Structures are given as structure tokens and as C-alpha cells.
Amino acid sequence: MVDTAPRTSKQSPAPTRAPAPPSPTASEAAAKTASEPAESTASSPRLDVAALGRQLLGTWPEVRLAARERAARPELQRIEGLTMAEHRERVLGQLKILVEEGAIQRAYPTSLGGLDDHGGNIAAFEELVIADPSLQIKSGVQWGLFGAAVLHLGTAPHHEKWLPAIMSLEVPGAFAMTEIGHGSDVASIATTATYDEATEEFVIHTPFRAAWKEFLGNAGLHGKHATVFAQLVTKGVNHGVHCFYVPIRDDEGEFLPGVGGEDDGLKGGLNGIDNGRLHFTNVRVPRENLLNRYGDVAADGTYSSPIESPGRRFFTMLGTLVQGRVSLDGAATTASAMGLAIAITYGNQRRQFTASSDTDEEVLLDYQRHQRRLLPRLATTYAQVFAHDEFLVKFDAVFSGKADTDDDRQDLETIAAALKPLSTWHALDTLQEAREACGGAGFIAENRLVGLRHDLDIYVTFEGDNNVLLQLVAKRLLTDFSKQFKDADAGAMARYVVAQTAERAYHGTGLRRLAQTIADFGSTARSVSELRDEKSQRELLTDRVETMIAEIAGRLRDARKLPKADAAAAFNRNQNQLIEAARAHGELLQWEAFTRGLARVEDEGTKQVLTWVRDLFGLGLIEKHAAWYLINGRLSPQRAQSVTAYIDRLIERLRPHAQGLVDAFGFGPEHLRATIASGIEQERQDEARAYFEEQRRAGTLPVPEKAKSKKR
Amino acid sequence: MVDTAPRTSKQSPAPTRAPAPPSPTASEAAAKTASEPAESTASSPRLDVAALGRQLLGTWPEVRLAARERAARPELQRIEGLTMAEHRERVLGQLKILVEEGAIQRAYPTSLGGLDDHGGNIAAFEELVIADPSLQIKSGVQWGLFGAAVLHLGTAPHHEKWLPAIMSLEVPGAFAMTEIGHGSDVASIATTATYDEATEEFVIHTPFRAAWKEFLGNAGLHGKHATVFAQLVTKGVNHGVHCFYVPIRDDEGEFLPGVGGEDDGLKGGLNGIDNGRLHFTNVRVPRENLLNRYGDVAADGTYSSPIESPGRRFFTMLGTLVQGRVSLDGAATTASAMGLAIAITYGNQRRQFTASSDTDEEVLLDYQRHQRRLLPRLATTYAQVFAHDEFLVKFDAVFSGKADTDDDRQDLETIAAALKPLSTWHALDTLQEAREACGGAGFIAENRLVGLRHDLDIYVTFEGDNNVLLQLVAKRLLTDFSKQFKDADAGAMARYVVAQTAERAYHGTGLRRLAQTIADFGSTARSVSELRDEKSQRELLTDRVETMIAEIAGRLRDARKLPKADAAAAFNRNQNQLIEAARAHGELLQWEAFTRGLARVEDEGTKQVLTWVRDLFGLGLIEKHAAWYLINGRLSPQRAQSVTAYIDRLIERLRPHAQGLVDAFGFGPEHLRATIASGIEQERQDEARAYFEEQRRAGTLPVPEKAKSKKR
Fold first, then answer.
1. pTM: predicted TM-score of the whole model, two decimal places
2. Do B702 and A231 touch (CB under 8 A)?
3. ipTM for the complex shown
4. Contact B239 A178 (CB under 8 A)
């Protein structure tokens, strides 16, 4: 087993490669500065940062550590201030390094030099975000989308013919699915691939401007081939979206005949990737270029598929691409952890304003507001780390074939659609709060927070728009609730919602009864002890999801009798709440995963601290949704108030452990690379303090006018 | 009176300079696509976009329109993708254009070619954000900070000697207040200006690294002089922070002896400005270089000031710089309006997924979730437009001397500290939501949303960190509440909070009684009619501010008996809620301003629509804080639920007017300059639709497999 001890981010550049021993000094130093209530000072538990760090590495710790060592190498890292052209070339070069070092082959078949290791592959891939999100996403385009389309949608002859050059980067490629006119609604893309029996070719064609392929990584500049999604038409029948392997550029980088495109130019981030547009004018490819795992066309134009239902076939094909969402969940969580490591380290050293003494300024993290801004986000990040690892294990089971039933795949997709939106939004929110918590320094590029935020911005709308994904989750929840939905479109959904009473099916858990009694509690102490009870938190969080879904299902029940347009309108009037219900479901998944992770902690002090973190996460959710709990009689006003009071207490208790909790993420200075988190602020504070002490000692400090006039 | 008719942003580039007539087609087109309830279709009021546009221009309409015409000129606009060096040079050149055209002199004395027009100056200055936020902020550094320090902190000889070269940009300058070690706490800066009687000079000195001046625009490259804030020391006494005029670079751009610095390099935005650091090693300036309006040193070293209290003197000096906050409030509101104009125009053309029919895809803005994402933010932006104009009028009154008592100045600063945080945070939130609402297209630089967001990021922490400003507001509210605070520091604050019962002083408004009766209402109709009543909204919003402040004051009452450290700890335990109370106060100010603006609307249809917008804003606040209203018995659960239901109804009613409401902001394509808001999406939709119609007509559209298999 490798040494997984996390490095403290508080010291100046540590020797790379040789992980330093866990540094209790960092958290101890932080603890010293904490203004904690007497209660917790006396008995504050000790956090085992090293052991916690090992646990946070999850199921593929060695793969992750190796990937982090790689991400710590300057030649793989982002340089701020490159032009777009320079950045693109640099990242392309970095991809070549990854190939040379055998870092990208993991998910590919052993027969082609891979390891058939899907979970490990994603674990390693996610860590690239530490080096440069452009590197992560350009790798993802090449091997996780373009290569993965050949791998998962193609068959053995395709693998043998094309994968070696894709794996070696000899052929950089674009994944041409999205069109200008259709992003979220992939089924409606308008590019056609019409089979020509005479020549045994498919004719790839873009019928109008809205059908141009758009936002494709590698399409702007480097891509030579593309996996193009198009409506497969043969014998006058449209068999729906299929994927075709299409050469797009010659060796000089010029578009091949019939192919055209544009560069997307500068973006809000990820400028190391050459996104662009593509269009096709009757471009012919051999029949064999259809990636035919889920649908094939014989020489005579006869279509066949192992999946009879066109709808199911479509979702099966798209389902093979779920890994993008898995990896974004992990990368977003890693980026959030980095932002918090930077802001909390700085907040533990930075001082501003005197409050409790006349001379010593307060450490930022001792301000309640500062704690409120950072610690709940830290708790959410912890929840995401645990949820992501479970998610990755599930993904690995499906893709390795260990547990790969239809149900497994559907569950995996629902988890992906629930977790990816939450974690990517959380990353933007957290990086922004971290930026603001570091003030002007947070805005300077060398402190990394703005760059990470710019790059991660697009994570919330690519690989599935977050709102659209959450709506998918909600539909699944409604389906589970009714077990009678047959069709995914909104009108059908609304029409087929069954007449099921919410109360009977969903309130066997005793939650309503619990809520009734809550109002009767008179004592805050009893109230708080209930709240920190794991079972109560679970029930409150579960109840909310179930009740919201049941209520919406109830409201949609009668819609099935309506004409399509009216049914769709009824569904639409519930859309906002549906998406909120899906979010609540995702939050519950995270809480459950955190709670299971907590159960595996052995060290007593660590378990105590982590329990507070979990409680902060769980009660934070309840506080955020307090209005719902109050309106629905699940919390009495008194108890809702005690939720906030208890959160304040948890934050006070966790304050001394803030540094340890971010140190446990295991980032070294070679990963964070933020000047303000290097210890420089502490050095400046120490220098300033020494200066004033010396002046006071020597009697050379000028007297303040106020003191002077008083003396008079 | 000039023609102030707003231009629709839906058309392709309109002829500049000749404002197009108000375009009802835009909102009518939007109305056609709306899925509105039968109720409002029949009787939907007509919005007079032109008249509303004129009202939104506020108190300085002609100045604003002229500034917008200027901002529409390409040579003053940002070019995406410039290197930092190119962008800096471009913006410097743009400043020269502003000088040549007499666009920056407005705030300066008539004796120097100015207009002594403070409100108009800010109105014009804010509009520069449309051209490039870097241009706005670099102008602000030169003429609103550096020049304004000379103007407001200096006296006639300084004005005559230095202002002409500052106004002409012959001397670009830095405003050297913030230090690495002290940003929010300006009083604690450590740079010293020690008077040397022998030579009648001040010695400017940086004692340690933390005292380096930091984040100064113009310091990185272009600045020749600087207004340096330092602790004024004479005869062994420190008289606190004063401002000195200090040359820093020679004509070749090299630092003068004793001056040093660093370039801040790349930032998260505003890269057209050369921010940098400065430090001073015993730099000598003549005694006359002290900007001596509020404090002077005689040749013999005797200090004198028209303001006896060092504290009041300090706050008076800083108070002269409030205009930065005024202009950020305006610019942030303008940027939010631009983001919404882009996203709503696009959302009115873009279609995705079929729901209510088998062929026609839904317009994005017809989705409830999409409406929920954009329309409440539009309502808030409207509130800000009205609040900002009142704020600017107040500012103008103080700075023109029309109403310039101590109370006026304090009120102005409190308003600034309340509004600037809300509007700058709102800008980031709105630009982000607009970006996401436009999907991948929102991430492309040419669509402007990401660039605006990057640039405005720093607005939330500069010219006063938002959290620190809100804490100032809260302290003012506590002071008003107690009338007994004498000192601004936290310990003192807590110690001196008076024993005042909340109930007696703050609940004479009958709100509690109102709340009691609310619970008794059984009817939703009655409940809703109460909610849309202006008086109810005002009472609910006012009550929350007052109750929160009274409660905190109550909790701090006993703290005055405690030792300083314990009192500070007590204050700190309420810090988060204090800041929330200040936010509530700011929201109330916005609501009140909106309501006053609404009262001035004459056109009946416009008044109706704008009333819905105001109600959406007011009830949106109540919904956001519903937990508080429920916990404190101000809303019954039933009524809290009807708030949400009524908001849903308001949004449905406003949906057909969304385009008109953003058109009324008056941005033309030359201002928005976002490809996706140019009408290109509508063209693409029309082209695609025509293609499919033609195919269907000709019978050449391939049959879907599903339909085919059914036929069999």
C-alpha cells in the first residue's frame, strides 16, 4: 500500500514525490487561533488527518495518488496568461505526454493494451482537473467521448481498425453529437445519414444551419476524424440517431471535401480546447463506418437492431456515454475541495480588524460570517466525496459487466443525473465564495480560484444541462411512484399519472406522526438531541422527497384525461417543483453516502468530528428547506429555530478542525499552486507583528492622536 | 427633450444615432408564443415600452443617452481575445478619446472646465460598462478615485496645480489606499508619512511587506503619480490616515528613487486595467503635497484639523469617496439588465423538445422553470433601476451641496453600503443564470455573458467588501435602534447596546396583530388579495428588518457588561444574522423605490404590468425568507403556500411581457453585441421549419421507424 498521508498545504513548497508526514501543526495552529466555546476547547476531539485522507481517496486510492503525482508536474499544468492558440497547443502536447506514459489506456480493452478498468480510469482522469481543467476535458473529448463512442457503440472490427490510432492520439477526434439547434434534445438532431444501396455508402448531410454540429472539442483545429451522430435513413425509413465514423481533415489539417466548419473562438474558460462547429454536404462514408453495436444496415439496405424499441435503443446508446457525467461529478468535487483548501488556509492566517483586543487583529476564520460562508460548503464537499465514490463503484460495476442489468444501467443514469447537477453547481458556488472570502487576492489569477471557476462554469450545462438532468431524475421518481408511466414526453407523462393517493403509499414511515409530536416538545435540548439523531435527519430528508413527488403526482393525476397540449401545460405548471424534488433526491443520496462513509470511520476523534460535519450537511439542508418543513408541518417553528441554533453550534465546534478537514483532501502546494495559500500571509503577519513589537519595545511607535488628546 | 425611445434588441444592427421607434412587434411576437392562461390572454394589458424606457432612464436621461451613444462606438468597445498587454493599451487609448470628447470633465469644477455636475457624471460613467467594464473602472480609477482624491481631499492650490493634468490624462495616477495587509480596515494601514521639520517634507515609508499598496489600478504600468494614504506622523503623534500626492514614475515609466512595485498580472477579469503594487522607501514629498482639506501640518510641524475627532475626521475623508459605490450599483444594474436582455431575447426564440404538440418544439421561455429562472431576476433588476436613480439623486444633493448635512452624508453612506452589495451580487447571479439559460452558446465569448461576469466578479469585494458593507449597515440600524452606540468597534457596540424592549418600540405598526389574523383566513382568494396589497408587502418587509434588529439588540443588551473580548464574542455570535438583517434592509429600500417609481407610471397598461413586476419582486422576497415569516408567526403555513402559488400566477401573467420589459432597457444590438440575441436563432428556427414543411409537402421526409412498424 502506498503512503497516502495528506500533505499540509500550509507550508512552502514541500519536496515533491515524497509525501510529508501528516502535519498536525496545521490544524493545531488553526485550533490555537480559534475562538471556541469553553465546552469544546476542553474536550475537542483529535482529527486523524492522515487516516481521514486515506478514506477520502476512496476505492481507487493508488490510481488517484499516481494521477495526483502526475498532475503535480509543471509540464502538465496550466500556465496563466497564455493566448488561446498557445494554450491549445500546450494542452495537445500534454495529451501526448499522457499517451507516452500509458496514462490514458486504462479503460480500453486489454487486447489493445488497455486494462479494462473503468472505475480506475475515471478516478485517474478526474484528478487531471488539478493540473488544468482544459487537460481534463480535452482528454475526455479524445478518449472519453470520441474514443468511447468507437469502443461502446462500435464492434470488434471498429476497435481493431480505429482504436489504436485514437489511443495513440495519432488521430485526434471530435464527438459530433450536439447541433446548434439541438443540445439537450439529442433525439431531434437533424443531420442525416442516408444509405445508398448503389454504392454501399452512407451519405452524411447537414440540411440547414441549425443542424451544424456545435461546441465540439477538437473540431476547431486538431480533430482529424469525428464520431458523427445522425438520423439513420435507409429505404425511406428513419431509424433514429446512430453514430458514424467520419474523416474530417486531411494530414495538412484542411477540411476534406464536403466538410466545413468554424472555430468557436474564445470561451468563458477551457480555452485549452479547440471547440468548433462542423457541417457536412453529402459526405460519403463506407457502410462499415456505421458504429453498429446497437443497429446495423446490411449491404442491401436492410436495417436490423438487437433492441427492437427505437426509444430504448436510443437511450441505450446514449447510456454508454454516462461516464462523462461520472467524471464531472468527481472533478467538480475535487475543484470545490481545492477552492476550500485555498480559502480556509488563507482565512486561518489572514487577519483584519480588532474586536476582542486592542492590538491583535482577528483571524478571518474566527468571524462567524466567514465560518458560515465556508464551513457548510466544506460539509457539502465532504458529502460529495463520499457520494462520488459510491457512484464510481456503481459505474464500474455496470461497465465491467459485474452488475449490468437494465435496472443497474437505469439506476446509474439516474444517480448521474442527480449528482452531476448538484456537484457542478456546488463547485461554481464554492469557488465563487472562496474567491470572495480571499478578497482582491482571490481575483488575481495566480491564486487560481478565478481560473478554476471560469473553467468549471460550463460543467453545469455540458454533458447534460443541469436543469434537464434534474427533470430526468424527477420523471424517474414519478415513474417509480406510479409504476405506470410508459412514455417520457411531458404530455404522456401527465396523462398517464395514475390515481394513487399520496398518503397511503408514502406515509407508512411514521414521519407525519413524528412531525405531530415535534410540536409538542417544549425543550430545546430535547429538540437538538432529536435533530442530531441520524434517523431523524434521514426521515426528514426522505419525507421531503417522497411527499413532493407524491403531491406532484397527485396534481398530475387528472391530467391524463386532458388533450396533449393541456396535459403538457399541467406538467409544465409543476416543472419548477419537480426539479426541486429531484434536487432533494440528490441531496438525500449525498447524505446517505456520507452517513455510510461515516460508519466506516474507526478513529474515535475523527468519527466525532466527521459526525459534526455530516450533521452540518444534513441540518444545513433542513435549514435551507425550512419553509417547506414548516408549511408541511414537519417542523414546529420552535424546532426550525433550533436547527439554526444547532448549526451555529456545530460550526463553532468545527472551526478548530477546519484546517485539518481541508488538509485531509491531501493537496500539496504543488497541487494548489495558489500564492495566498502558501504560508506567505502568515509570514507577512508575523513580520508586521514583529515590527510593531519592536517599535513598542523601543518606544518609537508614534502615539495615537486620540490617546494623546486624552492625556492632555 | 431628446427622443428616448428604446430600441428593440431583436433586430439586426439598426442604424446607430437614430433611435428606432418603439417596436411593439418584439413584445407582440413574444406574446404570441406565450402559453398563457385564458384569463390573461383575453385581457392582457398593453405595455408602453417607449414610455417605460424613458422612465427607466431616470433623472439624467439625456446624459445617459449620450453616454450610451458613445458606448455604442466600436473604438470604445472591448475586443474579445486581446492579450492583457494589448487590452491595457487599448483601454488607455480609450481614456484619451474620452478626454478629447469632453466626456469626463463633468464632475470637476467649472473653473477648470468642468460642470460641477456630480449626479450626471456618475450617470454617464456607469454607461461605460456597456462598452467595456475595464473602460468604466479605469476611468473610475483615474477620475473617480485618483482625481477625486485631489478634488475632495485637497484644496484650491492642489486643484489648480494638479487637476488639469489629471483631467487631461497627462498624468495617469493610482489611488494608493489598500495595502496587502489592510483592505477593509483602512484605518489600520501601516504606510507612514512622517513630517520632517528640518526640510519641511513628509517622508513616505513602507515598513514591511504587508504595508505594500496593492490592487491599485494604474500602478502596474501607466501611473505617474499616486494619491497615497498613510498614517500622518508629526511630533511623535500619529494623526491617522491622510492622503498625499506622490510622484511615482518618471517620463520614461521608470520608478522614481525609493519607489518600487510589482504588476498584479492577470486577473479574473478587468484585464484592461494595469493593477499593481507599490512600496516606498523613505520617499520625500514637500509639505504641500498633503491633501489638506481635513487635516494640515504647519511648517513647524503643528497639526490642525477642522474636525476635532480623529474618528469622525477619518470617516469624513473616506466619505468623499462614496461615489465609487454609487457607480458600481448603477453599473451592476446595467450589466444585469444586459444579461437579461440577451437571455430573454434568446429564450423567446430558442426552441427545444416537443411537449404540447407532435411537431412544434417549445420556446424555452414557455417552460415554467425557465421563467422562474429569469423573470424574478428581471423583477429585481427593475427594483434596482428605481432604487439606483433615487440613490444617485441623493448623492447629487450631497455632493452639489444642495443637502449636505452630516445626516445626509451618513444616510448616503448607509444607502451605498446597503445597495452596492445587493446589486453587485445580483449582477453575478443574474449573468450566471443568463449564461446557463443560453446553454453552451452562453459560454462563447462572442455572446458576452461570460466576459461581463468575469469583469463584474470583483465588484462584490472592491470599493468595500460586500459583507463588510452590510455589517456597516447593520451597525447603523443598531445605532438607530439604540441611539446609544458611540463607538463603531464590535466590543464597544455590544457593550453599549441599550436595554430596549423590542416589542414596545418596534411593534406599534400593528404587524403582529396582522399576523395573528392571517392564520384565521381560510380562503386563498382573500389571502392572495392581501398579498398583492402594497401595504401588506411593505409591512411584511419592514417588520422583518425591524424585528431582526430588535432581536439582535436584545441579545446584545447584556453584552455591555462583559469584558471586551467576551462582548466581541457575543457580537460575533450574531454577525451572520446582523448581515442578514442589513440585507433585508437593502431589499426594503429597493422595494420602496420600486413602489415610488410605480406610482409615477401614467399609462394604465404599463402600470398594471409594472405592478405585477413589483409584486413579483416583493413576494419573491417574502418567499425567499418564508422560513423567517413562518417561524415568527407573520405568515401562516397556508398563506406562505399561497405566496408561492401567487408568484407562479404572476410569472404566467408576465411571460407575454418579458420581451417588452427587457426592450424597455433600451439596449440596441450595438450595445448588447451578442450574436445569440441578434435574431440569428429565429432565422435558424425559421429555416429549419421551412425545410421540414417543404419535405412534408413533397412527401420526401423519411418515415420514423416507430410509425412504420405500427403500420405493419
1. 0.91
2. yes
3. 0.91
4. no
